Amino acid sequence: MLKSCAYCGGIHKHGQRCPSKPAATKKTTYIDRFRWSRAWKSKRAYIADRDKHLCQVCLRNLHNTQIQYNFIDLEVHHIEPIADAWDKRLDDDNLISLCRYHHELAEKGLITKDKLKNIIRESTPGVLD
């Protein structure tokens, strides 16, 4: 069976690799392996439970909140990035539950690390003391 090639525009047999197809460049990193680990999955579930499965920024009506009690698309955010602070990757005081919108703002630096740490401090006394 023949099919048209999206890479060179020619016709190849089904299953034949086109020489014009670029080689995959993404390599699995130690951060990828960490994100697939049982330790991370367990910690992520713990942090979501700690934060009552709610975005902590939305809960406080900060940074253009649309829904105050937002539990949609909840993600756990590393305040200090894994690549910069490997030893803090599983610390409770470095993790916070955020919706996708606020997670992107935090990744871009539009929500400061200090503000996120203050949210953790006020919601879980004793964590950062």
TrEMBL record:
Q: Which GO terms describe its molecular function?
A: endonuclease activity
Q: Does the keyword Hydrolase apply?
A: yes
User: What are the alphabetically sorted keywords of the record?
Assistant: Endonuclease, Hydrolase, Nuclease
Top-level division of the source organism's lineage: Bacteria
Where does the record place the HNH nuclease domain? 42-104
Q: Does the record carry Nuclease as a key word?
A: yes
Of which family is this protein a member? Belongs to the HNH nuclease family.
Report the PANTHER family cross-referenced here: HNH NUCLEASE YAJD-RELATED
Q: What is this protein called?
A: Putative HNH nuclease YajD
